[in-house]
Structure formats: C-alpha cells, structure tokens
Amino acid sequence: MKRITSIILAVMLVIGLAACGGGGAPADTAPTEPADTSSEPADTSSDDDAPAPSSGESTEISYEMDGVNISVVLPSSDWIDDGKYGSAGSYSVIWYYKDDYSNSPRISLEIRADTSSFDKRINDGDNRMDIANRTIGGVDMKGVAYDLYGMEWIEYVGKVNADNFASIRISRVDIESGEGKAVLDSIKFN
Fold first, then answer.
1. pLDDT one-digit tens code per residue, 146-187
2. Taking Cα atoms as reference points, which of 63, 111, 33, 76 lies closest to residue 183?
3. CA 152 to chain CA centroid, nearest Å
4. Cα–Cα distance, 121 to 105 (Å, whole number)
5. Domains by residue range for the chain, with CATH
6. Tell me: the pLDDT tens digits for 89-148?
7. DSSP helix/strand/coil, 11
8. Hey, is 178 helix, strand or coil?
9. 182 with 75: CB under 8 angstroms?
C-alpha cells in the first residue's frame, strides 16, 4: 500500500511540474535576445489582426413598409443595419450596435396595421412600467418599459398614418444622449 501511495504521489508531482512549466525552459530553446532599446518603436502590426478602420461617417437608410416611408441615419460605422424583413401587414427592421448576436444592443422598428402584437409583447413582459411619451419622426408615441427574454426594453408605440402603427423598441442602448439618441432623433415617417 505504501508503494502505491508513493507511485501516485510521484505521478502527481510530475503532472504538477509539467503543468507549471517545470520551472525552466526546455533544453532545446535558444536564449532570448535583449530587448531593442532604440528610440524607434518596433512594427508589431499585421494585416490579419489589425482592426477594421472606423470611418465614423453616418449612413442614411430608407425603407418602404406598407405605404410608410421610413428613413434613419445610423451615426457611425459601429451600427449594423439588419435590413427590412416581413410581409404585407408586418414589417420590421433592426439596427444593432457593433454586433448582431441575440443579446446585443439594438433599436428595432415595426410597422403593423394594428397594435395587438405590440400589446401582447408588452403585456407578456415583466416589471411593466409606463414611461414618458416621446415624439419620434413627428409622431407622439406612448412609452413603456418592461423585461422580456432576459432583456430590458423600452418601447414606443404610435399611429404613423391612417392605416399603420409603429413600434420602436430599444434594448441596451442609451437613448438620452449619444448615438442612441441620434438614431431615434433621425427617424422620419413620410
């Protein structure tokens, strides 16, 4: 029994040393050269890992959804236009900030002939709270905040013309200042 315990301890010691690097460099490793102390910085960039340049330029995008012409200005190249999708009676578009994964910051806009689907979504949310209305694109929109699908949402709903309502939903975007506010302020309905 003592011999088995000694073997187990020796194996654990070898594994531990291997995991920690053994305390020194392998025998076939060449010694490192001293650091370059010249005043000119070394070029460590490569085309493979260089970040894409950010133009910082805004982009205006227009859509036609069931007779409603919509335009928006995305204030920088950090915003991703997911494009318009849907069919007659139900259109939507999503603008993501920096990434388009499921929990990414976003502003989405939907156009529908009635508010039933907006109302259902809002009523299905937890911690529902009425918030101040907001004028977006010249339309007075009723505001509500709620939690749904593990995300906190602010939603504004208003009538954009005789036949259609719009819902603008925001999650994880500051709409009181900065680019989020700029996106909302740029939305126009014609």
1. 999 889 999 999 999 999 999 999 999 999 998 999 999 999
2. 76
3. 13
4. 19
5. 59-189 (3.40.1000.10)
6. 566 788 878 776 777 889 999 999 999 989 999 999 999 999 999 999 999 999 999 999
7. helix
8. helix
9. yes
